[in-house]
TrEMBL record:
Residues 31-392 form the Aminotransferase class I/classII large domain. CDD domains: AAT_like. PANTHER family: ASPARTATE AMINOTRANSFERASE (PTHR46383). Gene3D superfamilies: Aspartate Aminotransferase, domain 1, Type I PLP-dependent aspartate aminotransferase-like (Major domain). Keywords: Aminotransferase, Pyridoxal phosphate, Transferase. Homodimer. It comes from Rhodovulum adriaticum (Rhodopseudomonas adriatica). One of its GO terms (biological process) is amino acid metabolic process. Its EC number is 2.6.1.-. It catalyses: L-aspartate + 2-oxoglutarate = oxaloacetate + L-glutamate. This is Aminotransferase.
């Protein structure tokens, strides 16, 4: 018998981390590689947040905190939900974890039994299905393709629900597509969920503040108050506040669920970093004026990347509503052969050849559950983006 748990055979390492690691290795070996795989802003953490962390260290805030968050931070999170989303929560309804990923994982571990189903629209963030599998559940994928703007339709959601469905995972704006649901589009989905009271909603709102143009962000419990008692609204400081490495995520929901998540965390990691919590408190309560400034940069990059990729032969790139990703289709490239002799049979072959022949690292669409596509993160410099897109154009032009 293997020494390792059989559960591990159900999951795979994160493909996005693998691509970023591969790009770094090639760069360290002296190769000219532009990495477009990282899911983190290239902006620095705001100075006031860094100063708050340093002040916390100087005050000696270096001891254990409450298992799932400082009281001060939990109150700030309640205030944030009220201010930004019109949702009323008490600190007892809030959980703080070491990143958004731990929050989602704790909730799934605390609720899933063997055979429980979790509906996940595809394309999806790569970790959703593997976390479901680790927790003993069964992911149920529902395609939301380019023809619907990478958004799940109410009809598709309705058809996927069974008596075994326990959770519906919702992510807007989306990783990997950047697609954001309008209030009316979200209301159509919540109308379906109201007909199925056994289905809970896990809303991953990590990209809430990264939206562009006149798009208005909304979250399920805000759009449909009837879902409040069976919704876990998840968020964090990683993306909007450029704090990916600080590892602070949070969620609010029913007290029973939050208590179960606390129990999981108490026997795994215990509290998140005390210093990072004080930094997150400053992020949520301090000046927010840098967010629209950063967003203007992201929107300009988005528009540039969309234009340049749509100029590449065989590529179709929709305009996303938010986040910092685009998810172009390479349907027009499938079946062709690269200049280096690689047959482009699927998006993984496309991404591999693009990296080896042109030095551009992207994440292939199959990793996110929908092909033939690839994900580009435009959270990098204009110079890198222009050169990467030029290389992609050159690569596509050479396909025969």
């Amino acid at each position: 018998m293997s020494f390792l748990s059989a559960t591990l055979a159900r999951v795979k390492p994160s493909p996005t981390i693998a691509v970023t690691t591969k790009a770094k290795e090639l760069r360290a070996a002296g190769k000219d590689v532009i990495g477009l795989g990282a899911g983190e802003p290239d902006f620095d953490t705001p100075d006031n947040v860094k100063a708050a962390a340093k002040a916390a260290i100087d005050r000696g805030e270096t001891k254990y905190t409450a298992v799932d968050g400082l009281p001060e931070l939990k109150q700030a999170i309640c205030d944030k939900f009220k201010r930004d989303n019109g949702l009323d929560y008490t600190p007892a309804q809030v959980s703080v974890g070491a990143g958004g990923k731990q929050i989602l994982y704790n909730a799934l571990m605390a609720t899933l039994n063997p055979g429980d189903e979790v509906i996940i629209p595809a394309p999806y963030w790569v970790s959703y299905p593997d976390m479901v599998l680790l927790a003993g559940g069964e992911p149920v994928f529902v395609a939301a393709g380019i023809e619907t703007g990478f958004k799940l339709t109410p009809e598709a959601l309705e058809a996927a629900i069974t008596p075994k469905t326990k959770w519906f995972i919702f992510n807007s704006p989306s990783n990997p597509t950047g697609a954001g649901y309008s209030r009316d589009e979200l209301k159509a989905l919540t109308d379906v969920l109201m007909r199925h009271p056994h289905v809970w909603v896990m809303s991953d709102d990590m990209y809430e503040h990264l939206v562009y143009g006149d798009f208005e962000f909304t979250t399920p419990a805000q759009v449909e108050p009837g879902l409040y008692d069976r919704t876990l609204t998840c968020n964090g400081v990683s993306k909007a506040y450029a704090m990916t490495g600080w590892r602070i995520g949070y969620a609010a929901g029913p007290e029973e669920l939050i208590g179960a998540m606390r129990k999981i965390q108490s026997q795994s990691t215990s509290n998140p970093s005390s210093i990072a919590q004080w930094a997150a408190l400053e992020a949520l309560t301090g000046p927010q004026d840098f967010i629209p400034v950063n967003n203007a940069t992201f929107q300009r990059r988005r528009d540039m990347v969309v234009d340049l990729l749509n100029a590449a032969e065989g590529i179709t790139c929709p305009v996303p509503e938010g986040a910092f990703y685009v998810y172009p289709s390479i349907a027009g490239c499938i079946g062709k052969t690269s200049h280096g002799g690689v047959k482009i049979e699927d998006d993984e072959a496309f991404a591999t050849a693009l990296l080896e022949e042109m030095g551009v690292a992207v994440v292939f669409g199959a990793a996110f559950g929908l092909s033939p596509n690839f994900r580009v993160s435009y959270a990098t410099s204009d110079e890198n983006l222009k050169e990467a897109c030029r290389r992609i154009q050159e690569f596509c032009a050479a396909l025969t």
